[in-house]
Design brief:
It is a single chain. With 224 residues, the protein is mainly alpha-helical. The chain is built from 9 helices and 3 strands. The chain has a 3-stranded antiparallel β-sheet.
């Protein structure tokens, strides 16, 4: 039987890959579509392919299970979790409610240092759209949402968002690379940033809610 090739660039070295490294490698493979929904993840194959011990493979699979990227099937091991479009939309709508609250808190607590960071991200996002650098825009998107969560000080919300994002992250990744999407979402992100920098909780909350409503609609309407 031909062994599954899990992802390009795998190490193939014996037991040199730590559990955190393997979590990162597998997460990226799932997000990018190198590992597809319902694909089985065999511990022995992962151990050989990524040069990780079986113990570290189990730790990594457990962490990714908590994130919602994989699922354990009784007597059949682990597999990449399949999330339907409808479920991805529902997850995004729940995120919208929580992140809107966090944007409100961020606007109330924003320091001058926070505002400088937000303005910098806004500039980078704008430049990325103007130059067509989608990967840079996607990175800025991640930084912005993470910064807002950190500014809000809402730890429970942050953990909830982490799990929710994990479950729908494949759709988010593909949507971020969809032609024209960054140009649509840029003004939404700039509105969020402006609301927070202006210490306007209502504006920040509304802008975040509208942004994630737009993401949900795009997932629902686009064949991705």
């Amino acid at each position: 039987m031909t062994k599954t090739k899990y992802a390009p660039g795998s190490t193939g070295r014996t037991h040199s890959t730590s559990a955190p490294q393997l979590v990162s490698l597998l997460r990226e493979a799932i997000i990018s579509g190198q590992l597809v929904p319902n694909q089985r993840l065999v511990e022995a194959d992962l151990s050989e392919e990524y040069g990780a011990s079986r113990g570290n493979v189990r730790i990594a699979l457990s962490e990714l299970s908590v994130e919602g990227l994989i699922e354990r099937v009784q007597n059949r091991g682990a597999r990449v979790r399949a999330v339907s479009v409808n479920e991805a939309v529902e997850i995004t709508e729940v995120r919208g409610a929580i992140e809107a609250m966090c944007a409100r808190k961020a606007a109330e607590k924003a320091t001058s240092e926070n505002i400088c960071e937000l303005r910098s991200i806004a500039e980078r996002m704008t430049q990325a759209v103007e130059t067509g650098h989608l990967n840079e825009y996607s990175q800025c998107n991640k930084e912005l949402h993470a910064l807002i969560m950190d500014m809000s000080g809402q730890r429970t919300a942050a953990e909830t968002i982490k799990r929710l994002r994990g479950q729908a992250v494949r759709y988010q990744f593909r949507l971020s690379n969809h032609p024209g999407r960054p140009s649509t979402s840029l003004p939404q992100h700039l509105a969020i940033i402006e609301g927070i920098c202006s210490h306007d909780p209502d504006a920040a909350s509304l802008a975040m809610s509208r942004h994630l409503d737009s993401v949900a609609e795009a997932i629902r309407a686009t064949d991705i």
